[in-house]
Design brief:
- The protein is an all-alpha fold and 135 residues long.
- It has two domains: 73 residues, no CATH class; 57 residues, no CATH class.
- The protein starts with 8 loop residues before the first helix and ends with a helix.
Length: 135
């Protein structure tokens, strides 16, 4: 996985695809080669399609091997966040001991659901004074 900031202007200019496009003036023409296929089958077919193009005399610019799907697998789904949160009695324990799950729950709006079994923190006397003054 490339870290943030990997693609600097210089690295973009050093890229083989960029060099080829600027050298030839090529405007890529994208086309759909197949209908929807499963991940496993697409991984296998990518290699076959690259071999087909290579054998037809195409200049293959891929740096990496074929077959990698890309993307990421979600570790912290809603169900996993709920299961992880049930291990802790308070939100602060949940945050300290499982920050990844806490962040995912917060980011996706599941925090109230994940922490529903945890007791609510009583408001401080100062907060109560403010509420009373407003009334």
């Amino acid at each position: 996985m490339r870290r943030y900031g990997y693609w600097t202007l210089q690295r973009c200019k050093d890229d083989a695809v960029y060099k080829h496009i600027t050298k030839t003036g090529l405007a890529p023409n994208f086309k759909i080669l197949t209908n929807f296929i499963s991940e496993k089958l697409s991984s296998e077919l990518e290699g076959q399609i690259v071999d087909l193009y290579r054998n037809s005399g195409w200049n293959i610019l891929n740096k990496n091997k074929t077959g990698a799907i890309g993307g990421n697998n979600l570790k912290w789904t809603k169900e996993n966040c709920i299961l992880e949160a049930k291990k802790y009695a308070t939100k602060s324990e949940f945050f300290k001991n499982a920050s990844g799950a806490y962040d995912a729950a917060h980011r996706n709006g599941w925090l109230s659901i994940c922490c529903s079994h945890m007791p609510k923190k009583a408001p401080s006397p100062h907060t109560l004074e403010i509420y009373i003054k407003r009334i």
